């Protein structure tokens, strides 16, 4: 009885027949449309497909389809310097970053490049490249803060009924932000955004909406090596009540510690470079990033409550000390009067 499972020779023969098609067609219309796992599986079918799947042009198309910002010539030049070009960049940037341990691998760099892409309902809405000079005192000593939009706003497609109870949850799913930080000198990159929004909140008076994407990273400042920080991307949306429109007015990247203080460029650079170099790239299970964010907020509350207890104790000690000093002075005064 013959087996219905094709032999390895048959599979490779079929794969070789596939490769008789023009390489550009295979790359553009077939392989570029596969997800990364399927592409990896395809590369294992035959030696010829493996060669095609390693091609720089294929990975360039894949990067462009996911992150339109990489079509920018300046970014393409930077990516070309990576060990395996666009394939290395993709490996660094997809799907997202998990950084649980600080390894203190800080290296000096003079530039950080942001490749930012905003998608709405899985369609590209906006792409921009921002270069930050990290060698200046203005960057190193000031709070780390990168603004995406300066004098422009983005209108989200369609009309929005803000009275709909499902409006905020749908907005959090429909609007996605990818913020890839690139270190050109070290030829490494990482996506600093969560795959989904971890917070969507509407102001009860103005109706304006704040959407937050967060990566919780291991801290690395002097004396605070075990501290966690949040790399926070905030999107602020302004609603137009009269016509049901929603406009994105501000998008910014900041790094905040557990005391709710923004880190300086100097401290942020140490953490970001370590995250790029030693962080793990994985998708994780659905909802994991939000859980990590909520745990971070829980630890921050515990920290604040602990500090408040310490402050109350110190205040009580201070009050008791003042009372003791006052009583001592009264006794001395009384003793001098009696004598």
Task: Describe this structure in a few short sentences.
This protein is of the alpha+beta class and 339 residues long. The protein has helices spanning 8-18, 23-30, 36-43, 47-53, 56-66, 73-80, 86-93, 137-141, 167-174, 265-278, 288-338, and strands spanning 97-98, 111-120, 123-133, 145-147, 154-155, 175-183, 188-191, 199-202, 209-218, 228-240, 245-256, 280-281. Mean pLDDT is 86; it is low at 5-11.
Query: Helical content, roughly?
Result: 40-55%
H/E series, N to C?
A: HHHHHHHEEEHEEHEEEEEEHEH
Number of strands: 12
Span of the ends, CA to CA = 122 Å
Q: What value does the average pLDDT take?
A: 86
Number of helices: 11
- Strand content bin: 15-25%
Q: Which structural class is indicated by helix and strand composition?
A: alpha+beta
Q: What is the makeup of the main sheet?
A: 6 strands, antiparallel
What Rg do the Cα atoms give?
Answer: 27 Å
Apparent shape? elongated
**What low-confidence regions span 5 or more consecutive residues with pLDDT below 50?**
5-11
